[in-house]
Specification:
The chain is mainly beta. The protein is built from one helix and eleven strands, in the order E-E-E-E-E-E-H-E-E-E-E-E. Strands 1-4-5-7-8-9-10-11 form an eight-stranded antiparallel beta barrel. The chain starts with a strand and ends with a strand.
């Protein structure tokens, strides 16, 4: 079976995250500059391979002061570690359109395995004849596992920033 190559459509994709702030509300963020590609051998994407890279300096939470802090060595260390990367090691169908994506995530020079739940949205042609494939992925990671350890204690107990980060990813790929 022939391998099909796919490139991300960045105008119809978002690589996002959510983190608890003060232990009771979520702050959302995303990466503005990223690339990704996939290769598959079938239309159901079973055993497909995915590669992703985001510019750490493109992190955007909608607040310039917070974004500038996230770019420092307290968090992403964007000057020294310019990219956040992911390389899949497994993409397995659970049932129907539900898959499990496992791979190696590198943040701030530390690589750890992560597993994401993925919903395959399907394949369709857009009005210009391009074949597209859509995916939604979610997962969790502990930011301290990747050296993102900065925090501040709250006067009432607890900490300012949760260790748990929720990943929220919606992407479209274009068949090459």
């Amino acid at each position: 079976m022939a391998t099909t190559k796919w490139a991300i459509d960045p105008t119809h994709s978002e690589i996002g995250f959510k983190v608890k702030h003060m232990m009771f509300s979520n702050v959302s963020g995303k990466f503005e500059n990223f690339t990704a590609e996939a290769s598959s051998e079938g239309e159901d994407f079973e055993n497909a391979e995915f590669d992703f890279s985001a510019e750490a300096s493109s992190v955007n939470t909608g607040n310039a002061d917070r974004d500038n802090h996230l770019k420092t060595a307290d968090f992403f260390g964007a000057d020294e570690h310019g990219k956040v990367t992911f390389k899949s090691t497994s993409f397995k169908k659970k049932s129907g359109d539900d898959y499990t994506l496992t791979g190696d995530l590198t943040i701030k020079g530390t690589t750890k395995p992560v597993t994401l739940d993925v919903e395959f949205g399907g394949i369709a042609k857009d009005p210009w004849g391009n074949t597209k494939a859509g995916f939604s992925a979610t997962g969790k990671l502990n930011r301290k596992d990747f050296g993102l350890t900065w925090n501040a204690a709250l006067e009432t107990g607890g900490v300012l920033v949760s260790e748990e980060v929720k990943l929220v990813i919606d992407v479209q790929f274009v068949q090459q």
